[in-house]
Amino acid sequence: MIPLKDPIFRNETRAREYFEKLRWRDGRQCPHCGEGDKTVALHGQSHREGLYYCNNCKGQFTATVGTPLEGSKVPLHKWLLAHRLLNDDAENISVSKMHRIVGVSYKTAWLMAQRLQAAAILGFFTEFL
Ligand SMILES: [Zn+2]
Questions:
Q1: 70 CA distance to ligand 1 centroid (A)?
Q2: How far is the CA of 126 from the centre of ligand 1 (A)?
Q3: Integer Cα distance of 108 and 115 in angstroms
Q4: Tens-place pLDDT, residues 26-49
Q5: If you measure from the C-alpha of residue 88 to the centroid of ligand 1, how many angstroms do you get, rounded to a whole number?
Q6: pLDDT tens-digit series, residues 81-125
Q7: DSSP H or E run through 74
Q8: Could you give the 3-state DSSP secondary structure of residue 41?
Q9: Is the C-alpha dihedral spanning 117, 121, 127, 129 positive or negative?
């Protein structure tokens, strides 16, 4: 059974924290220059949640930069749920069913599936399974 009520599938902040933990298992790292220690979280109303600043290269980044999810307008919690659904062998969920559960259009779901498939080939997200 897929735990559809799990906060990482429903709440964007929880999804982001979960994703960050997986992405930066060995500590946060700037995707532009590889810096770890000199990166800080940006807070305040002018910054969106999950935005970080690198004091080394002066760049900004989020946990999705450098992953197949970079630049997506689909919220992270929907990505996590779509990934979970499509990779559950027991449930064997198709895109046409997934789009209703996740709450995106069929076209968006199809594009998400394509990206997730490419991501899997690249070795991303294997830790979600
Ligand atoms: Zn940097």
A1: 17
A2: 26
A3: 11
A4: 899 999 999 999 999 998 777 788
A5: 36
A6: 999 898 887 878 899 999 999 999 999 999 999 998 887 776 666
A7: none
A8: strand
A9: positive
